[in-house]
Every structure is written in C-alpha cells, then in structure tokens.
Specification:
CATH architecture of the largest domain in chain B: Up-down Bundle
Largest sheet of chain A: none
Oligomer: heterodimer
Number of domains of chain A: 1
CATH class of the largest domain in chain B: Mainly Alpha
Helix content of chain A: over 70%
Number of strands of chain B: 0
Shape of chain B: globular
Number of strands of chain A: 0
Number of helices of chain B: 6
CATH class of chain A: Mainly Alpha
Largest sheet of chain B: none
Structural class of chain A: mainly alpha
Shape of chain A: elongated
Chain lengths: ~100, ~160
C-alpha cells in the first residue's frame, strides 16, 4: 500500500493545527513566530503534494510556488525576529500579553 | 513511494512539531523546530522535489533556526513566564484539525495514488524560473532586499 494524496493532506493538516496551537497558546513572541512558520510549512507540503499527485505540466508549478513561498516566509521570519528584538529593547519583555500599551 | 518511510517521517515530523509547540524551554523548542524542518525536507525528497528539500535544509535549518537561536540568546533576560497551558488554543487547534481532516476524508478525488513522473531536474526549474516566472522571481528579489533593509533598520541602535 503506497501513501495517497489523502495521507499527505492529513499530515499537512496536523502540522497546520500544531502551528495554530503554538501561535494561539504560547505567550512568548518567538513561539508565536515558530507557530506561524509551522503553518507556512504545512502550506508548502500541500503545494508539493498536489504537484506530485496532480497532472504533470510543462513547468513544475507547485515546486515554483513552494520556492517562492519559502523565500517569502524566510523574509517574514527575518523581519519578525528583528521586530521581537526591537520590542525587547523598548519594553524589556517578549511576552505578548504585556505589550498592551495601545489597548483602550 | 514507500509506505514505511512515510509513516516514520510523519511520526518524526509531527512529534518534533508538537515538541516545538509545547516545550517550556525556548532553546529546546528551537531545536525541535529545526528537527521539524528536517522531517519536512525528507517529505520533499520522498515526493521527488529534491531541489526544494535541499533549499529547505539550507534556508530553514541553516538560516532561520540559527536566527531564532540568536534572538533567544539576545532576549534571554526575560525568563520564561509562561502562563499555564491555554486550553482555548488547544481546543481551537483540535477543532481546526477535525474540520480539515473531515473535509479531506470526505473528498473522494484526493484519494489518488502517485503515478510515475519524469524526474524534476534543476535545469527544468531554472528554465521555468527564467522564462515564464521571471516576473515573480524579480518581485521576490525586491521583497527579499526590502526585508533585509527593514530588518537592519529595525534592530539598528538609536543614536543618543
């Protein structure tokens, strides 16, 4: 029995949910970023799986989209971590619950 | 495609992801994050997208994980003051997984087995990037430059 597209999609959904859990339940800003990265990784896995199981075309579209998505999420991680450092310099904390100065 | 490899890699990857999401110590979580991406790269190799798998290893394990470790070390003084486990987040995550899994299992068109495909060479990817996808490629380059400059400006020391 070989794995079908369905099993890859289930694994990807599980990875997405774990990322959602990390982004929602942790208070540390770096953990929230890790959760977002995990969710993006699940999307990449979906792209590659659909490319592999779908009809083949001249250009490997799924692979190209996964490459662009990896580049964009790397840029997002760099800016996000820079933001964490900048916030830490100003407020001396990385706990997202304490960053409530804009709260009305 | 090997079924045993699929099961082993998914257990490794999901276990590492769960550890990254729930471990108390930040550094352990960051290392588990790197392990998750190693598992994901193995998945990509299994699916025949070798170039993306290697790019993932270089970018995520080589760059993003190191960046996260550096950020943890730079913001160290803030000791872990995690609240107790948030049940709301867990419930939402389980509900999201349940919905996704239900809809995937209900869709019959996705239960297909992979057919044989021609091997994906780097030449084919490069050709596609340089012909039909050159506009998105240039936009990505601009985006990466902007992100680089933005990250530098954000962390620059302010002159007193």
């Amino acid at each position: 029995m070989t794995p079908t597209l369905q099993s890859f999609l289930i694994v990807s959904a599980a990875l997405f949910s774990i990322g959602l859990l990390a982004a929602l339940s942790r208070r540390h800003a770096i953990f929230v970023l890790i959760g977002i990265e995990l969710m993006l990784a699940a999307a990449n896995l979906n792209f590659i799986a659909f490319w592999r199981f779908g009809p083949q075309q001249e250009a490997p579209v799924g692979v190209l989209i996964a490459l662009f998505s990896i580049a964009i999420s790397a840029a997002e991680a760099a800016v996000g971590l820079a933001l964490v450092i900048a916030v830490y310099r100003h407020y001396r904390t990385t706990n997202v619950d304490q960053l409530d100065q804009l709260k009305g | 495609m090997n079924s045993a490899a699929f099961v082993l890699i998914s257990i490794l990857m999901l276990g590492a992801a769960l550890a990254a999401a729930t471990l108390r110590k930040l550094m352990h979580a960051a290392l588990c994050f790197a392990l998750t991406f190693a598992g994901l790269a193995m998945f990509f190799l299994l699916l025949g997208a070798e170039f993306v798998g290697l790019a993932l290893v270089f970018i995520y394990i080589g760059a993003v994980a190191v960046l996260i470790v550096f950020t943890i070390l730079l913001t160290r003084r803030d000791a872990v003051k995690e609240r107790r486990f948030s049940w709301v987040g867990a419930v939402i995550a389980v509900a999201a997984f349940g919905t996704l899994a239900w809809s995937i299992l209900r869709t019959e068109s996705v239960s297909v087995v992979a057919h044989r495909v021609p091997p994906l060479t780097v030449g084919r990817i490069g050709e596609a990037l340089m012909t039909g996808y050159v506009w998105p490629l240039q936009c990505t380059g601009v985006l990466l430059t902007a992100a680089l400059i933005g990250a530098l400006v954000l962390v620059m020391e302010e002159k007193q």
